[in-house]
Amino acid sequence: MLRRLLWLMALNLILFFLISGGVMTNHTFLMAMDEWGMNAKADRAEQTTIQIARFFSIATEYKICLTTGFIISFLFIYLNKYRTSFFILLGAACTKLISMGLKNSFDRERPPGPSFVSVHGEGFPSAHMIYAVFLTGVIYFLISIYFKGKGQKIFMLGSFLVVGMVGWSRVHLGTHYLSDVLGGFFIGVVWLLVLYLLSQKKYSNDVPRGDS
Length: 212
Fold this sequence. Notes:
Elements: H1 2-25, H2 28-37, H3 47-59, H4 62-78, H5 82-106, H6 127-144, H7 150-172, H8 178-199
Helix pairs in contact: 1-8, 3-7, 4-5, 4-6, 5-6, 5-8, 6-7, 6-8, 7-8
């Protein structure tokens, strides 16, 4: 299990480096992919899809990420999983720092033309995607404690669907290129796995209280 997670983390890190390298060098393939992705950008006549996209965009803002992280962190305290609680709260707080640091490093402009929501900062990677991966990841982790088998797989599928809708919403609203979204997803998965692995170390305090 540990080896599998490490391989998954390494794969996503490599994919992030490939995407970020393409961003820095204006690689032809990346530019073609982003141009293709811009076909999903909304026009003003598509009010229904714009409202749907805005919902997913608002639902994964940083304040939602931080608040949800705090609530789930508190729930893990109730479960006597103190180390897990700490890393969830730390992860929620640091998603903002990670996204800001990477955005400032790459300094990539957002897509030209108007967007249908207010935006701040540079485009790469998408902070909303990092927040979405973190949010769905920690919620799935909490739910998986109580649901096993088929129920767990349904929640996992739902998590992927939500993350996919967030990615679509950021492109549809004209705030990001497709490569911004992919970069946010890959680095978000890396960060989530780092937090998970740290919270699961054998010497953690995540053990039920027993009689002394």
